[in-house]
Amino acid sequence: MQDIIHLLPDSVANQIAAGEVIQRPASAVKELLENSIDAGAKKITLVIKEAGKTLIQVIDDGIGMSETDARMSFERHATSKLKSADDLFNINTKGFRGEALASIAAVAQVELKTKREQDTLGTKIEIWGSQLKGQDLIATETGTTFSIKNLFFNIPARRNFLKSNQVETQHILEEFYRIALAHPDVSFVLINNDAEMFRLEKGNLKQRVMGLFGNSYQEKLVPVNEETSIANITGFIVKPEFAKKTRGEQYFFVNNRFIKSNYLHHAVQSGFESLIARENVAGYFLFITLNPATIDVNIHPTKTEIKFSDEKAIYSILRSSIKMALGKHNITPSLDFDVETSLNIPLPDYSKIPEPPKIRVNPQYNPFKVETEKAYAPQKSMFDLRQFNNISNWETLYESENKEEKEKEDKIANPERRYFQLFQKYIITKTKNQLLMIDQQLAHERILFERFLNQLALNSGTSQQMMFPVTVDFPAKISEIVSEILPDLSALGFGIENFGQNTWAFSGLPPGLSESKVQELLEEMVREFQDSRQQVKFSKQNSLAQSMAKNMSIKGGKNLSDDEMGNLVNDLFACETPFYTPTGKPVIVNFDAETIDKLFKK
Questions:
Q1: Which of residues 139, 171, 203 is at a domain's end?
Q2: Which in 136, 143, 241, 594 has the greatest CB count within 10 A?
Q3: Are 61 and 39 in contact (CB under 8 A)?
Q4: 23-45 pLDDT, tens per residue?
Q5: Structural domain that includes position 494
């Protein structure tokens, strides 16, 4: 029988490895930026075109490579970071596996230019799909320029799985944010489709956060600084009043490496306990520094998940550091231990002559005018009083016919209430045979969803014009989505135009939306829109209408008048689908007589 096991060709093996390391353009951006940081770069420029599908270029002023190192860097498992297995537990660099450049070169057309400071000439290497196309000596600046053209050109199936340019650009921006936040001492430039998106000068962490997310973060950040024998926690948390309903600005770094950890996220959330609503998410930019030997970073291809040797201790330290930071900045109620616990009694003012108390007398009072029955009635026990009250309560169930007629007359003059509000969240009403409980927030969400969907289809949204335009600075990721959905925002009643880079000017707003809420609403709406459109069942317009309806709907906890409840119920039953929200949550729960009867039967 013929042998069937054989070695894969290098080109195929590299493509398989590339599938693990380079999943999308953002993966390549991450690897190249990390290489530049490891090379000691102090200035890095990232250039992308068509969301990285056409071009990804990273230019740095790092130490560069020799001709031999430049060629060796494309070999699999070739690295300058590790020399033995023990080094895996003392990692202080970003990359260390030696697979990134080999993986990229296997699925793209790659050009590398690099030179060391001590060399007269640099090296240029071209590789297409793992095939060497050329290697030459050239004149170039000290540092490295790495260009990736036509990513996945030789794997059309993988290229077809990429998302739209807007989605892939969002992933690239996220990787850029992570690297830029971890290294505020490095200047960064990001150019997208020949337009400069970011020019970040080197500085401190707070300046970097403001450079990435807007100057409004100047007032939103609370510093965190906690040192222990196990780990040091530094960075910033976002004040509780700026917590959002969806995840956005949540960044953990361990030894300057970005990580994801639901466990540590829970520690932060618990630190904000009772300060933010349960459905809101705290924002943070936190750096954990500890001994590299106490963590394992080599458990995931993207290196965003790590293991701690003592995870519970890190959790406790992180949680307490959040509470400490909030307490120091008077975000939480605190006790003043400098004040004595004795009663604080004011001293009398001896300059004032005290007035004698005045006696008030009722001249009509007659002490002998007492009802005989009450005056001489024996004292009743609590049992007797309770029994008397119960008898009177039962007697009210058997009122005279004359009283019933009187009530009927009163109802004609004063109509019976049709709606009741329960817990400031639910509207209770009844039909001929049923009792209805309606969630006021979900009901309004359904009403607005259908209204916005109709406005998007007919381009018929009304706009409330503003006397003076309002300018808003959005984070770059939000601004990108705003550009994408600009025609839809206009159809919904937003008078909006770009005012330069990530600044937008509003000349009109949908009715009912205040100027002070426009930035918060649009940021939340864009995040909701991003989340909802990931689901195949939602079209672009459905996703936008759904996210806007969710953010503009009235919330639980709002008192509604009878007229407001009546209008809400009438509008709800005028909808095409009144019983469910766009995401399938029930809006109405009904109880018929049989269901209620069962509640009282054993």
A1: 203
A2: 143
A3: no
A4: 899 999 999 999 999 999 999 99
A5: 437-588
